[in-house]
Amino acid sequence: MRKLPFLFCFLLNTQLCLGQIQESPESVVKEYFAIQSEISQSVSHHIYSDFTAFNSLEEVQFTFEIDSLRDIYFDHLNRYTDQLGQNIVDDEIVGIDYFFDRLLLEYPLHHETYTGKSVLLSDVNQERLNKNFRDFNNPELLSNNDFLEYIKSFLSQESRKEIKTESYAQSDNKYLHAFWNLSEKLFNKHEIQDFWRHLYLSQHIENYGIKNIEPYYHEFVQTSKNTEYINNIQVLYEQSRIAREDHLIETYKRVDDFDLDIHLFLPDTTQFSGNRPVMVYFHGGSWSEGKPDWFFSAGKTYASQGWVAVAVEYRIMGRHGTLPFQSVLDARSAIRWLRTNAVRYNIDPSKIVATGNSAGGHLVLASAMADSWNEQSDDLGVSPIPDVLMVTAGVYDLTIDNSKWIVKDLEDKSLVLEISPNHLLKNNLPPMLLIHGENDMNCPYSTAEYFALNMREQGNEVEFHTIDGAGHFIWFGPHSTEVSKIKREYLENLGFN
Length: 497
Prior knowledge:
By secondary structure, the chain is an alpha/beta fold. It folds into three domains: 5-157, no CATH class; 172-240, no CATH class; 248-494, Rossmann fold, CATH 3.40.50. The chain has 18 helices and eight strands. The protein has helices at 5-15, 25-48, 51-56, 59-78, 81-84, 86-115, 123-130, 145-162, 174-186, 190-207, 214-223, 227-243, 296-304, 317-320, 324-340, 359-369, 445-457, 480-494; strands at 248-255, 258-265, 276-282, 308-312, 347-357, 388-392, 432-437, 462-467. It has an eight-stranded mixed sheet, with helices on both faces. Strand 5 (347-357), helix 16 and strand 6 (388-392) form a beta-alpha-beta unit. The longest helix has 30 residues, at 86-115. The termini are far apart. The relative contact order is 0.06. Mean pLDDT is 93; it is low at 14-22.
């Protein structure tokens, strides 16, 4: 059982200065939250610095740990209770309880993912969580973020169970569909149902797009009693609809009753003649979320410079209930489709550049390396290998803890090696540009460095750039300018124009 001495010593040190706090209510509140913030940093480090080990504990040990951490927060709160005001105290109690109850709620899933052992919570812990149902329809708690995160986690787990049933087999937007059904069962107050449906529908549009969501959209607009929610959803929907109307959309594959689209941004043929180079975008999102829309703006820019720009829709967990294996099949199909339709769209089939961020970067690599994964309907005589690979903050190793969810339900867990770039090292691959943040915690820098080094040793042309001090999301934010400059200079050196 792990000990918590650093946390208790920290709390003791904070107690030594509490006697000095005899100021205005505002300063007391400020001081309370300042100390709580420091406690939270220590607690978060304790939990998330080795999340695998934390969730690999046996249930008794795990429960002891979260209750010990919970007590630290409540000890801190109790010393300020008489000075904070009842509203703050009540909100803090809710937040503390739901933060740690969420860890308990997620424990069986994480424990099985990291240890391979299926567990059920004890009757005592399950009863502890069951008591939370009484709050699900309490509108006063909707302003508490920890409460909201608990509900989201609960809905995620229940949706995961829902979509495994036969009624969801052919459903697009599976998780939205499951949530819609669950919201009717769980939220019996209209204002509560409105809140959650607005939240999930808006997040879905932002993270998945509007394709095939019309039933949910129209039902919400017609039944919601909150005009602000309705207006917000209508604006989001219209923005997405308009963005899909200014370019060509083709279906490159139909599989499992899903039409998968490829979005084409074509250059002006009066200005750019002959066959043109192609920029193919694969979005990120952990093979679970994401949408081609994220690259529409970039697509327009490249088209204006004479490229055929393409954003690919591929199967993902959140919409189609699939694993990365299906995403790989789709990526390879998309490249084949472009070559097959090269004449139709004035494409130079020898100048196909594939680019992607995070999981999208993985698909760029897999399209060139995962030779054993091909859709049955594909023409295997057409190469799925792009001519240039550009990967930003990519996923190189699908066997690390962050990716164990992929194999959790697979009988043959070694199957993932067939789509894991660091396990597919070989020569004679296209030139590749790899960009990675030095402090990437999502896709560890060491996995990218290993790939680059070993691919060079295989005789491949690899240009590897480290973004010093950067985390995972280097394609936007403060590091985006540097990343864009690296890509631009790389393409200029290739002479693709």
